[in-house]
Amino acid sequence: MKYFFLAYAIIAIAVVGVFKYRGHHFSEPPIVLLPDMDDQDVLKAQKPDSFFADGQGARQPVQHTAPIGFQKDGATNLGGIPEYEFSGGSGYYFTGQVGDYFGTGMPEELKLTPENATELLARGEERFNVYCSVCHGSSGDGQGMTSKYGVPGIANLMMFTPEIYPDGRMFDVITKGKGNMSGYGYNVPVRDRWAIISYIRAMQVARKAPYDAVKKSYDEGKAKQDSTKPSAK
Ligand code: HEC
């Protein structure tokens, strides 16, 4: 037995001698069998670095560029610059939520009037066709181009009517994504998200309208358009 303790002590000392005790600082770089990108030639934030003339690792943003999610001064306040507003605010306009629940209806911050509502809708149509139609289809039925190439389970947006699916929830899905759909919070500014929602709602209403009513208003619109067109002699 006493040889066992002796051997144990010797082995323990040998192990610590070779591998060092926990917390020991080595002066040589460790031997790494599988490097796993542990060492990289990267600049460390807040650390000096001889690569740049000023000797600093931390860099200023490149001139005339803005980091993703950047807020222009005052953009979060009403009357800011909606084109640059990606997030950062609280309340219904920025989250789609009223307290703990999703709200519905267009937020006051859009300052909608009969004139600019048409403009918002047109903007929504254009943005929808840029960002959503590849998957959801230009009529929102979930049969976009990617579905033909096998993306499964794309939602038919015509089923997500306001009665069962509040505007705020749609806003939240556009911002954060869901399942195979990624979030658009970094690509689509807040105002455009509401514009897209307004366009989806318009498509849902248009789909429910009786054929005769749609045909009548289509014919009227067409007649008006034809009468204002310069006639081709
Ligand atoms: C890359 C394809 C893709 C694009 C682009 C896309 N979606 Fe989706 N979307 C999906 C898929 C897939 C689902 C189903 C997600 C699930 O239920 O897991 C979905 C679901 C949804 C839903 C229903 C979510 C729910 O609660 O079930 C809404 C609303 C929606 N998308 C809106 C949009 C809007 C608006 C855009 C454009 C800004 C957009 N999507 C762009 C693929 C896409």
Low-pLDDT windows of residues: 74-80
Total count of strands: 4
Specify the CATH homologous superfamily of the domain at 82-209: Cytochrome c-like domain
What is the overall number of helices?
8
The proportion of residues in beta strands is: under 5%
State mean pLDDT (0 to 100 scale): 86
CATH class of the domain at 82-209: Mainly Alpha
What do these coordinates show?
It is a single chain. By secondary structure, the chain is mainly alpha-helical. It has a domain at about 80-210: Cytochrome c-like domain (Cytochrome Bc1 Complex, Chain D, domain 2). Helices cover about 40% and strands about 5% of the residues. The protein is built from 8 helices and 4 strands. The strands form 2 sheets. A two-stranded antiparallel ribbon has the order 1-2. The longest helix has 19 residues, at about 190-210. The structure holds heme C.
Q: What topology emerges from the helices and strands here?
A:
Elements: H1 2-19, H2 92-95, E1 97-98, E2 101-102, H3 114-131, H4 133-136, H5 145-148, H6 167-176, E3 177-178, E4 181-182, H7 190-208, H8 211-228
Antiparallel strand pairs: 1-2, 3-4
Question: What is the gist of this entry?
Answer:
The chain is mainly alpha-helical and 233 residues long. The protein has helices at residues 2-19, 92-95, 114-131, 133-136, 145-148, 167-176, 190-208, 211-228, and strands at residues 97-98, 101-102, 177-178, 181-182.
